[in-house]
């Protein structure tokens, strides 16, 4: 609804009070826990505790830059490795985004048993990542997986668990990501596909359009606005790509990611005089600027190919 | 129409049948793995701890007493299993309930009234949704520390937020809801609160219920914020995460899995009864006309 459709009558004091009662709590909450918090996180990037006082400095950026360029002997602080892992995780996420689109398409096309699949594919969303990770760790620790990998890769040592082996830990985290994200965005895509006019697809079928052509040349252009929103969100969240690293390895065995690094730094903070908090804020500041620019670029690029997104 | 009849009515080509068969096999594998995950948790939680340690994926005699022992044996940061359930209920039920309630009211105001923020708020929410800000956990920690809200029940106030993605669903709904009844009620002397709570909100209840269930399940299962900001008020997810180390060292993985199984029951039961509501046509972004 546009502004013209909204009530134009003169508001009474009750209307004003009603608007205020609906708006005041969310707005105050937003101002405190979003606006203030984010501004403060930018401020923190330029602060550092010294002798019990906070001083203004660029040291956090220098420290972060050093860890990005030179890495670290401590794998948990090796930001160069963390960035590499984050980009790899992001690529897996994008791949699973496409897979999720295909999964939703086949469910929409009523593959045999689609009603059951829709329910069963929802199960990972109902279970805590803590529980799925405990199961996955047990699976990786069992004799079967390590022995299988020893045979496939002809390893000359006995593997305890691939999650505790630097050669395999990352791959196992990607596997976990693939397993749990197979039906990603199923409900959103399902809801969007359901709104596609049936007559469009019927006429395409009469014209001999195959399923691949139907998906890419008819359905995808129709749902392009939704695609733009989802892909923009994915790209904007590039530095948040982490999988279940925290739960599966804690960032050890060469699996550290950027967001897990920041999470660990906040988790291990003890009071507001912890240097970890301010270094994490500095990295957050850099990542925010890069991801905002990326999100704007990708959105501009994608929307330039079709008309503006309708919400 | 049965699934077989539906398939027959589609008149698929041979190539399409082959592709569908391959996709179907992949679907079955993934679906089976999800079912196995859940069944394995319930079964492992009822196994003898020695058998479980020697062969985690084997079979052994079932002992249901684990599911009772969980309530006394699982402890984390001074909280027992019942306390963890209470923390989960408190933060994951009341938090999302109030948040969805506030979001709905905010969306209604923005959709139906013209005021300073009526166009600004939806625009801000879109920006917030698409432009992520990294590192804000540091400042949130500092704020909560200064407010003395870490490990506090007052943390629930942080979720009294209407500027969420759920706003867009409500906003779209209230834009299309008919104004006939509310105008009639207004002529009869109803005030804005009566119109919203007695006429508008009941119409939005299916959407309200659907979004609340999704938010509740997400909060019930989440561990990230709770582990950082309130490790001494562990929710079930946090408590199980913290109990892992103890269970591994003391060979009581049976209790850990029993705890995991119990934590899965509320979302699974809710999903069993409300899956149609939860999976109803939720869409975002629109389609091209």
Topology:
The complex is a heterodimer of chains A (311) and B (289).
Chain A: H1 13-45, E1 47-50, E2 53-56, H2 59-70, H3 79-108, H4 114-120, H5 123-126, H6 129-141, H7 144-152, H8 169-181, H9 186-193, H10 198-206, H11 211-222, H12 224-236, H13 245-248, H14 258-267, H15 275-303
Antiparallel strand pairs in A: 1-2
Helix pairs in contact in A: 1-15, 2-3, 2-15, 3-8, 3-9, 12-15, 14-15
Chain B: H1 3-9, H2 14-44, H3 49-54, H4 66-73, E1 75-76, E2 79-80, H5 81-112, H6 120-130, H7 136-147, H8 166-176, H9 180-187, H10 192-221, H11 224-229, H12 236-249, H13 253-278
Helix pairs in contact in B: 2-13, 4-13, 5-8, 5-10, 8-10, 9-10, 10-13, 12-13
Describe the protein:
- The complex is a heterodimer of chains A (311) and B (289).
- Chain A has 311 residues and is mainly α.
- Chain A has a domain at 53-113 and 182-303: MetI-like (MetI-like fold, Orthogonal Bundle).
- Chain A is 66% helix and 3% strand.
- Chain A is built from 15 helices and two strands.
- Chain A has a two-stranded antiparallel ribbon.
- In chain A, strand 1 (47-50) and strand 2 form a beta hairpin.
- In chain A, helix 2 packs across helix 15 (275-303) and helix 14 runs antiparallel to helix 15.
- The model of chain A has no long low-confidence stretch (mean pLDDT 89).
- Chain B is mostly helical and 289 residues long.
- Chain B contains 13 helices and two strands.
- Chain B is 70% helix and 1% strand.
- The two termini of chain B are 31 Å apart.
- Chain B is globular.
- In chain B, strands 1-2 form a two-stranded antiparallel ribbon.
- Chain B has helices spanning 3-9, 14-44, 49-54, 66-73, 81-112, 120-130, 136-147, 166-176, 180-187, 192-221, 224-229, 236-249, 253-278; strands spanning 75-76, 79-80.
- Chain B has one domain (71-278): MetI-like fold (Orthogonal Bundle), CATH 1.10.3720.10.
- At the A-B interface, helix 1, helix 3, helix 4, helix 5 and helix 6 of A face helix 1, helix 2, helix 5, helix 6 and helix 7 of B.
